[in-house]
């Protein structure tokens, strides 16, 4: 038996055994537009995974991971999706902040912050976007100043995923007075459980509140909780986005496959599969998913060498657009029935939720417009856009 096949059998057997007893009802819980669903159960499940060594697989062993190869990580995500295991709650810590600390943090930061991520004892959120700094992230206005060995942070962040549940936030803020654009920004690690932090949920079209506004009013963090040097925050922040668009997308794409299969089955049930135009779109969607997966695996070489490069923007552009189009296709397959809520007062079907939530896919984690600029300028070497 090959090493890859043995690994597949190992994780498959563990999932089959683990999703029983107290976790028997956890299958299929959570996901985009449903992050509120059974959060405590999903948190307990992920801590159960951690105790068995199934978190942070791709991390080096010295930091609590398994040094899993890209192939093994793909296998894990495939089997996890096939088992309909619950949506992960530690994605931001495991796939974004953790790799950033490993690549750019100090030894002290690695000792302090990595073990609680591996054990799912501390959850993280991302403090990037602001009301005036979304796609134009370099316009960040949240400010921090060093005061007696502590950073004091004031400002507002928005679209902060899972901020209500997070213990910590990595915050991109301006630490050099008078600086503009990419200069003078720093990457701070800020505790969320303090008087200077207020979280306000944002109700989405799905009726849920995965995203939040976060207000910092003289919030504090230790002076050592800065990743990289003061003023080097833009470089660190871009590396974090690279990790988000890199290996973390593998699990997302496996989930996409399940959604596509559901849409195909719906087309058979409704008879929409007989429509040659819809059938063509279904086939194109399947082809697009296969291309997406192959491209994601190909670009993983950048992750193994350190922080992903600008090529990771290709992956984000592709999957964001593909998933939004899948939501549109799903509604067309459903037909006029898709215009009526599944129940009162605002109960949505999986297809409706897919359509509504996927509208955001081409915006969050870097909008399509910004990804095209990055690809044009940093991958293809085209002249910079006039600003």
UniProtKB/TrEMBL annotation:
Q: Which organism is it from?
A: Planotetraspora silvatica
Pfam families annotated for this entry? Acyl-CoA_dh_1, Acyl-CoA_dh_M, Acyl-CoA_dh_N
Per the similarity annotation, which family is this? Belongs to the acyl-CoA dehydrogenase family.
Asked if the Swiss-Prot or TrEMBL record annotates the protein with the keyword Disulfide bond, the reply is no
Where do the Acyl-CoA dehydrogenase/oxidase N-terminal domain residues begin and end?
6-120
Please indicate if the UniProt record lists Oxidoreductase as a keyword.
yes
What name does this protein carry?
Acyl-CoA dehydrogenase
Q: Which GO terms describe its cellular component?
A: plasma membrane
- Where in the numbering of this chain does the Acyl-CoA oxidase/dehydrogenase middle domain appear? 125-217
Cofactor(s) for this protein?
Answer: FAD
Which is one GO molecular function term here?
flavin adenine dinucleotide binding
| Keywords on record | FAD, Flavoprotein, Oxidoreductase
Give the signal peptide as a residue range, or say none if absent: none
């Amino acid at each position: 038996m090959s090493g890859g096949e043995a690994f597949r059998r190992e994780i498959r057997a563990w999932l089959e055994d683990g999703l029983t007893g107290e976790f028997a009802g956890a299958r299929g819980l959570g996901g985009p537009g449903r992050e509120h669903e059974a959060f405590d159960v999903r948190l307990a499940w992920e801590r159960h995974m951690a105790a068995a060594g199934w978190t942070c697989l791709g991390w080096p062993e010295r930091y609590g991971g398994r040094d899993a190869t890209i192939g093994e990580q793909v296998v894990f995500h495939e089997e996890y999706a096939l088992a309909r295991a619950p949506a992960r709650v530690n994605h931001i810590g495991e796939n974004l902040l953790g790799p950033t600390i490993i690549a750019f943090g100090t030894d002290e930061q690695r000792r302090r912050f990595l073990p609680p991520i591996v054990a799912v004892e501390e959850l993280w959120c991302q403090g990037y976007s602001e009301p005036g700094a979304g796609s134009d992230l370099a316009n960040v206005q949240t400010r921090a100043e060093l005061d007696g060995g502590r950073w004091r942070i004031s400002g507002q962040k928005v679209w902060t995923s899972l901020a209500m549940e997070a213990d910590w936030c990595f915050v991109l803020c301006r630490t050099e007075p008078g600086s503009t654009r990419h200069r003078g920004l720093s990457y701070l690690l800020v505790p969320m459980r303090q008087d200077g932090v207020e979280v306000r949920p944002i109700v989405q079209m799905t009726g849920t509140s995965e995203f939040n506004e976060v207000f910092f009013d003289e919030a504090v963090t230790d002076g050592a909780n800065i990743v990289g040097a003061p003023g080097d925050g833009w470089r660190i922040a871009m590396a974090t986005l690279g990790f988000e668009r890199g290996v973390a997308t593998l699990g997302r794409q496996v989930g996409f496959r399940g959604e596509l299969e559901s849409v195909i089955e719906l087309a058979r049930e409704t008879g929409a599969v007989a429509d040659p135009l819809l059938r063509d779109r279904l086939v194109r969607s399947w082809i697009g998913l296969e291309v997406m997966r192959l491209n994601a695996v190909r670009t993983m070489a950048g992750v193994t060498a350190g922080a992903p490069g600008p090529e990771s923007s290709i992956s984000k552009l592709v999957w964001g657009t593909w998933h939004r189009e899948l939501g549109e296709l799903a509604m067309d397959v459903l037909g006029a029935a898709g215009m009526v809520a599944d129940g009162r007062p605002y109960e949505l079907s999986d297809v409706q939720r897919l359509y509504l939530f996927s509208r955001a896919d081409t915006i969050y984690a870097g909008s399509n417009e910004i990804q095209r600029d990055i690809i044009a300028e940093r991958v293809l070497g085209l002249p910079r856009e006039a600003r």
